[in-house]
Amino acid sequence: MDEAGAIFKVLVLNEISPKGLGRLPPQRYVCGRDIACPDAVLVRSADMHAMTVPPSVRAIARAGAGTNNIPVAAMSARGVPVFNAPGANANAVKELVLAGMLMAARNLARALRFVDALAGQSDDVEKAVEGGKSAFAGFELQGQSLGIVGLGKVGSLVADAAIKLGMDVLGFDPEITVDAAWSLPSQVRRAASVAEVLRGGRFVTLHVPLLPATRDLVNADNLSLMPRGGVLLNFSRQGVVNEAAALAALESGQLGAYVCDFPSPALLGHERVICLPHLGASTCEAEVNCAVMVADQLRDFLENGHISHAVNFPSIRMSRESAFRVAIANANVPNMLGQISTAMAKAGLNIHNMVNHSRGEMAYTLVDVDSAVRDALLADLAAINGVLSVRYLPRLD
Ligand SMILES: NC(=O)C1=CN([C@@H]2O[C@H](COP(=O)(O)OP(=O)(O)OC[C@H]3O[C@@H](n4cnc5c(N)ncnc54)[C@H](O)[C@@H]3O)[C@@H](O)[C@H]2O)C=CC1
Ligand SMILES: O=C(O)C(=O)COP(=O)(O)O
């Protein structure tokens, strides 16, 4: 379908798995990189802080976990939900963390560089290998201690895998969810602070979002708490570790290795830094899982006004018993429902069903009415102080 004929237009800012895009039927959706007046944005890691989000945008869907590349607060103020895909790429990250621990413990990056440098010396390769390998002797993961900061979708999978490898696991998460707590093996010991995790782990791995509170979470003050020669793994975000402090700790021998998924000019070329090119979620499985999950959430929002897994809105759904629905994002303040229902009554509409959920400062209301809604009512609703966005969603099928 061409852009003009589509009911919904989705601006796609990164490569999104075609299996996910396939969930948005072409009879209703047009998706692309060059879309004017999009209804929604589909994104992975593209930096949306640097762009002007068109006023037509009603939702942003992040095919992944972290939303620090999206201006979430500004979107909340516009009544625009930001969806993500909790857990959809967690196994991929877990497996890369295991790879990172093995790479550090067995000196694999340096060993590979050594072998690469033998290219062209065909006569002497075996001799060079046997003569050089002792420089790369490492240690085993079994029996080692692992500290985990952040026991959400990724952290709890890492904890489980590490226990299965025979590691001694210590974890910290001040806001652990009940689900995550249930999914943790009983052997995981509970720490009361980041400092306690750093003190207790020969390996320490970070699985927190980048927030003002987690910026420089690991820094010059607390890196010194780690056992000398420890290994720090950062598959969270670059800003969670103070890079200058990590480099200084590598220089002093306090850190044995820094493994991270976020290369930067300062880190490149360092002997004991293992940098991967932000590969945590780059498996076919994770890419499909994330794209399918957010495309389904986005479609349900655009067509029915339902919300699941938005980082800035409450979850909400209401079965469709009438063909005429209005979805309203509003500030979570007194008398919003009163004003909304008064405006509807004035317009002569009978409310068939209504649901309102709130989360922090945001609230969201779905109202099904018995007859069609005119533009004048939508304008009246939008003019109510505290209403952030209004959408009319007549049933499509
Ligand atoms: N390298 C990559 O490709 C990927 C990186 N990520 C990063 O990993 C982060 C975590 O991902 P998930 O586990 O899926 O998210 P999640 O939301 O399931 O878990 C994050 C956990 O961190 C905890 N937390 C927040 N602040 C904390 C603090 N100060 N100390 C300790 N715990 C704290 C939360 O309570 C939550 O349980 C993402 O936000 C993203 O930045 C996620 C997926 C792929
Ligand atoms: O899901 C996340 O938070 C990630 O960091 C993955 O990023 P990506 O989708 O691979 O650009």
Automatic annotation (TrEMBL):
Superkingdom as given in the UniProt entry: Bacteria
Q: What is its EC number?
A: 1.1.1.399, 1.1.1.95
Coiled-coil stretches are none
Give the InterPro entries listed for this entry. Answer: ACT-like_dom_sf, ACT_dom, D-isomer_2_OHA_DH_cat_dom, D-isomer_DH_CS1, D-isomer_DH_NAD-bd, NAD(P)-bd_dom_sf
Reaction equations catalysed: (R)-2-hydroxyglutarate + NAD(+) = 2-oxoglutarate + NADH + H(+); (2R)-3-phosphoglycerate + NAD(+) = 3-phosphooxypyruvate + NADH + H(+)
Physiological role: Catalyzes the reversible oxidation of 3-phospho-D-glycerate to 3-phosphonooxypyruvate, the first step of the phosphorylated L-serine biosynthesis pathway. Also catalyzes the reversible oxidation of 2-hydroxyglutarate to 2-oxoglutarate.
| Organism whose genome encodes this protein | Variovorax dokdonensis
- Which protein is depicted? D-3-phosphoglycerate dehydrogenase
UniProt xrefs under PANTHER family? FORMATE DEHYDROGENASE 1 (PTHR42938), HYDROXYPYRUVATE REDUCTASE (PTHR42938:SF47)
Into which family does the record put it? Belongs to the D-isomer specific 2-hydroxyacid dehydrogenase family.
Q: In which pathway does it act?
A: Amino-acid biosynthesis; L-serine biosynthesis; L-serine from 3-phospho-D-glycerate: step 1/3
UniProt keyword DNA-binding, yes or no: no
Keyword Oxidoreductase found: yes
Q: Which UniProt keywords apply?
A: NAD, Oxidoreductase
Residue ranges of domain ACT in the record? 325-395
Q: Which PROSITE patterns match?
A: ACT, D_2_HYDROXYACID_DH_1
